[in-house]
From TrEMBL:
This is Nucleoside phosphorylase domain-containing protein. Residues 52-303 form the Nucleoside phosphorylase domain. It comes from Chrysodeixis includens (Soybean looper). Belongs to the PNP/UDP phosphorylase family. SUPFAM superfamilies: Purine and uridine phosphorylases (SSF53167). It comes from the Eukaryota.
């Protein structure tokens, strides 16, 4: 479970994350506003130094459920008298749960939301001196040629023009960053698909859009300046180009993790086949079960890794560790007030 030789590595010799920002080391303290944490207020090494896996998903509820699932899978035991704790509850933006070496965090919806979170989570890995972390995005998507309930492992992320780049404007200039995912990790995840699973697990290109309606060719938004025929021509063209699903986060997720030299993968479940419609019609109990399917695959990977390393049933770090009570209170206030 290592990087391919041609993968980007941007870390220190001991495997800890190296930031591409010299300003951070010059700061008195680095406040992670949207996580309600700070390098001066919290002992981040004590709290997060044992993290190996960072699992991101859309909603706080989904990631809380994932935290309980992975806790059972790896046999992690909470200290007597304690419960699972939302570490970032005072940010009121994202939720974060820690289960031994696994960090479970909600990322919200869309590229801006996941981008903000990743900047701070990558900095958190740096401050906590985490070694060789592996990031997963676990989510939902619209299938292209695949019915609801199938699991898609992204081979690469592309934008609406099928470009494998994440483009943003910085100081008035357009910056393009390659949106690459770890190829070996894709293969390892695919190998863990169970032939007995009542659904397919496939790999392919994931299209990431900046919009749910017009950007994904839906006919049911507040605006629509194209026809059903236009939509179908476009969807069939991207399907022929190897696109198997559409969602709204993978482009930024792939580009920022790659830029940081972090091994990452995207695993989603399809909620419908966009070649057959725009709206999901499956009953809630069915879609709820579908959403557990990518979770199961990621859990298999994590459990196998920990078994190989002899690290199951860890008590680990995770409790709030305050270095400075005064700064701790200030960080809470800053996070509550920061827009």
């Amino acid at each position: 479970m290592s990087f391919d030789k041609d993968e980007l590595r941007d870390e220190y010799p001991d495997g800890t994350v190296r930031l591409r920002n010299p300003n951070i080391e010059l700061m008195d303290q680095d406040i992670l506003y949207h996580l309600a944490l700070g390098s001066g207020s919290h002992d981040l090494v004590e709290m997060f130094g044992d993290v190996k896996f960072v699992c991101l998903g859309g909603t706080p509820k989904r990631m809380e459920q994932f935290a309980y699932t992975i806790m059972a899978e790896i046999g992690h035991k909470l200290p007597c008298g304690t419960t699972l704790h939302d570490i970032s509850q005072f940010s009121y933006r994202y939720s974060m749960y820690k289960v031994g070496p696994v960090l479970c965090i909600s990322h919200g919806m869309g590229i801006p939301s996941v981008g903000i979170l990743l900047h701070e989570v990558i900095k958190l890995m740096y401050h906590a001196k985490v070694r060789d972390p592996v990031f997963f995005r676990i989510g939902t998507c619209g299938g292209i040629g695949f019915e609801g309930g199938n699991v898609i492992i992204s081979e690469e992320a592309v934008d609406g023009n099928l470009r494998n780049i994440y483009e943003l404007t910085v100081l008035g200039k357009n910056i393009q960053r390659p949106a690459k995912l770890d190829k070996r990790l894709v293969r390892e995840l695919k190998s863990l698909a169970d032939p007995e699973d009542p659904y397919d697990t496939v790999t392919g290109k994931t299209m990431c859009t900046y919009d749910f309606y017009e950007g994904q060719g839906r006919l049911d938004g507040a605006f629509c300046d194209f026809t059903e025929a236009d939509k179908m021509e476009y969807l069939e063209s991207i399907h022929k180009a190897g696109v198997v699903n559409i969602e709204m986060e993978s482009l930024a997720f792939a580009a920022l993790t790659h830029h940081a030299g972090i091994k990452a993968a995207v695993v989603c479940v399809t909620l419908l086949d966009r070649l057959k419609g725009d709206q999901m019609l499956a009953p809630k109990e069915v879609s709820d079960e579908w959403q557990q399917r990518p979770t199961k695959l990621v859990c298999r990977y994590i459990k196998r890794y920990l078994q190989m390393k002899g690290r199951l049933s860890l008590d680990g770090h995770g409790s709030i560790a305050v270095k400075s009570p005064r700064r701790f209170k200030l960080v809470q206030q800053e996070s509550e007030n920061y827009d």
